[in-house]
Each structure stands twice: as C-alpha cells, then as structure tokens.
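Module 6 notes. Inverse folding takes a fixed backbone as the condition and produces residue identities as the prediction. Think of it as a translation problem where the source language is geometry and the target language is the twenty amino acids. Below is one complete input and output pair. Work through it position by position during the lab.
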C-alpha cells in the first residue's frame, strides 16, 4: 500500500501505509508493526514526534485545504 498522509484539521498528521521513520542521526524508529502513526503539529505532545492528543488541551488551530503547489523552480548555479 502506498504511503498516505492526511492533514487533520486542528490536529495531527496521520501517516499510513508503507513507510519508515528516522531521527536526525539516521536511527530508525521501531514501529512494532504499526502501519499508521500520527505526528504532532501543535508542539505540545509529551511523546514527540508522535501525537498524544495534547492539541485538544492547548487550543491548537489549523485548518488545511488541499491545493495545487506552484511549479518547482529550477536551481540556479
């Protein structure tokens, strides 16, 4: 199953499908067979980078609607 990412209004980023997660040092998170996780967007989770529903207590608000991104600009040397 391809990876699917859902931006939840006033909540987390839900990632599901076939994926791996690494920290900045290149260490892989052991997901213990999970095929879906939610990432914190509010910054208040005590289980970073994962969501623990802290957004419900801290008043985090962010509504996102899908849109077309602008074309990628070629890099100049």
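Target side of the pair, the amino acids:
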């Amino acid at each position: 199953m391809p990876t699917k990412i859902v931006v939840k209004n006033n909540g987390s980023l839900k990632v599901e499908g076939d994926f791996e997660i690494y920290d900045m040092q290149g260490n892989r998170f052991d997901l213990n067979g999970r095929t879906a996780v939610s990432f914190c967007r509010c910054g208040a989770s005590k289980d970073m980078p994962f969501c623990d529903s802290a957004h419900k207590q801290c008043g985090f608000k962010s509504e996102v609607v899908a849109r077309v991104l602008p074309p990628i600009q070629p890099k100049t040397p």
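Reference fact for the lab report: The longest helix spans residues 55-58.
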